[in-house]
Amino acid sequence: MNRSDPPRPTPLWRDGRYQFSGWLASPNFGPRPGSTKIDLVVLHSISLPPGQYGGDDVDRLFTNQLDWNAHPYFKTIQGMEVSAHFFIRRNGDLVQFVSCDDRAWHAGASSYRGRNNCNDNSIGIELEGVEGGLFEESQYETLTSLCTAILQHYPIAHIAGHEHIAPGRKADPGTGFDWPLLQQALGCTSQYFPDGIFEKNTFQK
Q: Is the pTM of this model over 0.85?
């Protein structure tokens, strides 16, 4: 198959949906521009309210069902219509909101390696956590399995954080994310990752 051809259904994928993920459809998506190559994975961190884990508020945000009056922080993001393709909870559970063949609304104003509007060509993965915080072993295990499946199905050439595609505006997943661990688990060369990320030793336990 030519790498620019649309992905074909496999036991792991059908219509952009990963078969080992739960599914909760978000209305916040759209078509990708014609002839777009899906070659970028963007990693994020999110928790609602910030620093509180285990609830369903992230699900509600991505499906436009969040009660803006339920917490004071929610007033600061009232009206936002956002989504990611995937969300990995602290216990490693995985839910998908948007088909990877479609354009989710996770990157915002962004640019990476000479291309703007990273939503157009990327798959967005949210990890339940906070900017600069540590992530759970179960999250890395799920992330590794998911990224392996994505790499096998889509012509991925880059894996970056929100902080790398929107520097100065975003700082997630931050210094608590173990990039060397992910690289080793995936067996990818450093060329897949942001320039200088391993030399800078950004991971802080």
A: yes
